[in-house]
Amino acid sequence: MQSQNFKPDYAGQTPHGTLPKAGIDMTNMIATIGDANLNEFEKLNTGIVAKSSILTVKRSKFTNIGYDMFYTEPYRGTAMVSVGMPTGDIHTGSLTVLPEAITYNTVDNCYRGIYVNKSALYADYIHILNVTQGVYGTNIGFQQSATVSNSVITARSNGLAFVLNPFAKAVYLASNEITINGVNNPNSPIQPAWYGIQMRENNVFATVRYNATNNIIHLNNGTYGIYSGMLNRANIKFNNIRITGNGYGINAQSNLSASVSCNTINGNYTAGLSNSYGISIGNLSINTSLYCNSVDSLYRGISFGGINPSTYLKATEFHHHYNGLYLNNSAVISSQTHYGNRWNNANNSFQAENANTNGYQLSTFFVDSTLSNIYKPTHNISGWFLHLDGNTFYCYNSSVCATPPSALTDSALNA
Questions:
Q1: Strand, helix or coil at 37?
Q2: What predicted TM-score, i.e. pTM, was given to this entire model?
Q3: pLDDT tens for residues 162-185?
């Protein structure tokens, strides 16, 4: 335990790397690791590997878990692993990580905190600090769920990444505080592949439901606070995102019926940055609801790219941008009638700019002519904003931003 290196191999010993392959490796078990005394896992290729097992981990501490190039498993470098096995075993697994004691952090200075493949996950009130990737989940089993809640994560690349889980029941990511500390590259306007929360499928009709609610995300020289790719009815609400440098607060691409509402996204555009975006919607996202979001001090507050029919952009609060609202040269979002968006401050350019000068009529805004100028932004195309009387939507008389429901049970799926 105290040696810098392994003892010499014995005759016939199985080949190995310079780090122990795992602290504990189990297959087809129902087990709990941790009781009254603290378990410590340190200087390993993996901490705990559970294969086709139902595992609960508590009172366990993982430090300096880093992958050894000798081993080839995709989960190398991970503190806690739960994977399903091929035909002949239980097929799927389940990992529960219970709240830690206040005197230690669950994971610190490891490559990755948690890896699940063909496994359910429940992790609540834990700390995953100084990692490259916090939690990674894929192939979550049929009607299984994954929950990560009330946890603190500091990472260099990904905080929470759930990718390709088409048959899962749901993924709940709620009330976490995530900090992404990317390394600034002055030669790259947008830093590569750094996510606070990444949620992605390859088929918009997948039955899994993703929920990212009530998270606090600090994005420092990163790319995406929350990325939502090809999801069906994703729920992205009540998140508070702070961008330092360039990046996107929320980026939703090719989504069907996403709800992106009640989020607050702030940047530091006053530093002269030109690639910071509050919310970006694109690549044929259909029936997207954007209610009661607040965007502040970003190069562009809300940006649309391409054809995005049946978009509902309601009661946005725009503050201090180069453009509060921006549509690119192919953007279409459908007509917006009396939706109560507010441009609260003068901008360096048009408060609303539409680069689709030939097709702007397909994204016409109708605004009550009796309202103050805060509802009538400066814009680049005469006739894009048309003024007429009518009842305007306001957040204060809507329940869309009522107190968020619990994300720890299946009831959150219907929120």
A1: coil
A2: 0.94
A3: 999 999 999 999 999 999 998 766
Q: Is residue 4 part of a domain?
A: no
Q: Is 374 helix (H, G, I), strand (E, B) or coil?
A: helix
Cβ burial 33-65 (10 Å sphere, 16+ → b, else e): bbeeeebebeebbbbbbbbbbbbbbbbbbbbeb
**Domain span including residue 268:** 140-414
Rg (CA), the chain: 24
Given a contact cutoff of 8 angstroms between Cβ atoms, the answer to whether 117 and 84 are in contact is yes
Can you give the pLDDT at residue 415?
A: 35
Query: Angle at CA 125, nearest 5°, toward 124 and 131?
Result: 95
What does the alpha-carbon distance between residue 102 and residue 57 come to, in Å, rounded to a whole number?
16
User: Are the C-beta atoms of 113 and 139 separated by less than 8 Å?
Assistant: no
Paired strand residues for 57 = 33, 97
Query: Can you read off the two tokens belonging to residue 250?
Result: 């929320």
Closest by CA position to 41, among listed 113, 149, 98: 113
Kindly report the backbone phi and psi dihedral angles of residue 271, in degrees, each rounded to the nearest multiple of 5, phi listed first: -80, 0
What is the C-alpha to C-alpha distance for residues 116 and 121, in angstroms, rounded to an integer?
Answer: 7
β-strand pairing of 30-33 with 54-57:
parallel
Segment 95-124 mean pLDDT: 94
Whole-number pLDDT of residue 189: 58
Q: Could you tell me which of 206, 227, 201 has the C-alpha nearest to residue 142?
A: 206
Residue 219 pLDDT > 70: yes
Q: Kindly state whether residue 62 falls inside one of the protein's structural domains.
A: no
pLDDT digits (tens, 9 = 90+) for 185-218: 666 655 556 899 999 999 999 999 999 999 999 9
Q: Binning pLDDT at 50, 70 and 90, where does residue 411 land? A: very low
Mean pLDDT, the chain, as a whole number? 92
In a domain, 349, yes or no: yes
Question: Could you tell me which residues are beta bridge partners of residue 259?
Answer: 235, 289
Q: Residue 273: is its pLDDT beyond 90? A: no
Number of domains, the chain = 1
Q: Which position has the token pair 């976490």? A: 176
Kindly state whether residue 101 falls inside one of the protein's structural domains. Answer: no
**Max CA pair span of the chain:** 89
Find the DSSP H helices in 37-100: none
pLDDT of 50 higher than 50: yes
Type and span of the H or E element at 304: strand 294-305
Q: How many CB atoms lie within 10 A of CB 360?
A: 21
* DSSP-derived pairing of the beta strands 276-282 and 247-253: parallel
